[in-house]
């Protein structure tokens, strides 16, 4: 055994003395002490930072001043609202060629829609042509949306021209052949003492004389629609534009997010989606009841966007978001907690909060009396996401979207 081997041998065979003060408790003791120091330091620093942070949050002004609103418990997702996968049978069309085609109109088999980049487009067979542009480029960001324009509702008038509601720029008549654009109502115009801030949807009488349209809010613009929903602002209006006199008048005020609009067959009233309240109101626009309003359907299982007639004489209603029951709906939960809403919007941006909105897609068909006829679902929005409108044409349902980069087409004979 050489010297090194001897040292190793002696170390390995050194007698072990086991006492109460072994290495383990000593180590623990020092850890407890340093742990305490760490915790105290951490808590002190934490409170030093947290209290001023809380103070700053409390002092910050919230962008919204929410109203307390009363929503009934959402209806159970059963019977007519029973979840299914029928919307997943839809086919996506023109994926990545159309961004946010909110609303759809057709002349024969030619389809028209307006997109998030401010264009009115014509779809013929497999081709997409730009018919007109309502605003000015650049487009594509939140900042330039007001100048680019954001066409939402679109309809075909009796002469074959298109009537378009642009969220930022107002009402337009567009010649689909020449691309000529006429700004019928500008949002610079003051109506009833207030400017039009969020023009949303429209419908035209069969004789083309009157255009009825919604202005969702006088306070918020389209890009701030989450503020509008969460604040539950009651400044949505239904307006009338007379194509002969070119005058605009207010027919109804005080709606919480007036959205989709659809003339009733007798043209004496219009159905109006009151999105924040999850209901559809009927506003009387002519005849003996002109100026009056009643509720067509209340407590829907979602927040309604556009309404369009169905071939069975009822209505297609696309839901911008659902109120699942069983499940959780943030808008319902916070409807009577304005201080929490204020706090949330002090801390988080709308983009972050949008991530908490479930991608559940739901389209309802209502009977003429407002009761549910059938519902089509796409839980998680796998095929058709963020549906804004269901437009029926030739046995198919064309599904618009306020933010998806495609149109969907559902064969009604298959569902
Ligand atoms: Ca709409």
TrEMBL record:
Transmembrane portions of the chain: 37-60
Entry keyword Ubl conjugation: no
Domain of life per record: Eukaryota
Alphabetized Pfam families for the sequence: SSL_N, Str_synth
Keywords: Glycoprotein, Membrane, Signal-anchor, Transmembrane, Transmembrane helix
Membrane topology: Single-pass type II membrane protein
Domain Strictosidine synthase conserved region: 200-286
Compartments where found: Membrane
One of the record's GO molecular function terms: arylesterase activity
Principal subcellular localization: membrane
SUPFAM superfamilies in UniProt: Calcium-dependent phosphotriesterase
Gene Ontology cellular component annotations, sorted alphabetically: endomembrane system; membrane
PANTHER family, alphabetized: ADIPOCYTE PLASMA MEMBRANE-ASSOCIATED PROTEIN, STRICTOSIDINE SYNTHASE-RELATED
Family of this protein: Belongs to the strictosidine synthase family.
The name this protein goes by in its record: Adipocyte plasma membrane-associated protein
Source species: Albula glossodonta
Taxonomic classification: Eukaryota, Metazoa, Chordata, Craniata, Vertebrata
